Amino acid sequence: MYRIFVVKIIILFILTGCGGGGSSVENGSGGTQNIKPTSISRPTPTAGDFVTYQRKAELRRGNAPPYTYVPYGEFTTNRVVFVNADSSYKQTETSHGYYPTPNSLPERIQNTKAQVFFSSDHGLSAFYIFKDQYECRYTPPFRREPNLLTVGLIWSIETKANCSVDGIPDSFTTTYQGKVLGLETITVPAGTFNTLKYEITLKSANIESNPSAIVNCWKDTVTGLNVRCDQLPSASYPGVNSNELVGYSIAGLGKKNPPIASYAGDWTGQYSGNDQGNCKLKIDISGVISGSCNGAKAGTFLISGLVKEDATITFNLKMGKETSATFNGQFPSPQTLFGTWFNNNGFSGEWAFEHD
Fold first, then answer.
1. Which domain of life is it from (predicted)?
2. Residue 23 in contact with residue 146, Cβ under 8 Å?
3. Burial of residue 313 (number of CB atoms within 10 Å: 0-12, 13-18, 19+)
4. Which residues pair with 137 in a beta bridge?
5. How far is residue 198's CA from residue 192's CA, in Å, rounded to a whole number?
6. Are 155 and 26 within 8 A, CB to CB?
7. Region 48-55 average pLDDT
8. What are 315-319's contacts with CB under 8 Å, separation 24+?
9. pTM for this structure?
10. What's the pLDDT band for 49 if we cut at 50, 70, 90?
11. In sequence order, what DSSP letters do the residues of 188-207 get, joined into one string?
């Protein structure tokens, strides 16, 4: 049952960049006083919109204050939007990072891919995490927060999920209780934003000890994106998760800030033309490229290269000190990569990669 609760924590961070949705609300009397209420709503998504988040986790040590916290992994998550004809949409999410291991053993790498489905009014209808075979469906689609957020607003939303975790069916009811705390200006890797700060408490009555999680989020008043979300320590999770916005592109608002870190991770693809082959490459958070390609004519070659600030990419295939071919391309989004290649023998062609 604890793993089901972990799934709900995953849902919280899946929703970090998803904005709000419509729901019945109760106006509270709390919140910051003498501030003109600020309302936020999420713009309609456009195909190709994306967000990138950096998450850092720490575990709390000790049974009583003062506690100490130790690092427990760093992860980069990219989410790309695909819009359907009926205005419903899905996000394809890739996440990669590491967990440290005891006794100075090598770090344990985690790569996760998920698809998240939304109704036209931003309600979460289903999600599927491929690697761990987590699947949940919501009828009707649920919205973690109201469509309109204003200082002092209080709300409570209950939802039932029908899930399958590692092939084991389960259903559970979860309550999301939220309140908007006030206006704050904060700085994250993607920039400085004027935000509404709000808090959400997640409770699951059908899990032993009624475990809960508390998450504080800061939502940008212009884009409607959560620019930071912090999961606070609780009895069910003795740690801290900090999720910060690194990059984003929202066509409907003409807003774009794609840093190199948006493209970090593992990539797989093929090239064609005068030679054909398969490639696997890795991009680190500073844009350095490594990996290898295996061509039908050229054989196996190592990759080296660099991602540039303008979201273009150049890498070479090398055998020893000799350069075999040069690949140039660009990123339409953090999920796809394509371009052309050539070598000194007059051979050329095209190539395309996808984020693992």
1. Bacteria
2. yes
3. buried
4. 126, 162
5. 18
6. yes
7. 84
8. 315/281, 315/289, 317/293
9. 0.75
10. confident
11. ETTEEEEEEEEEEEEEETTS
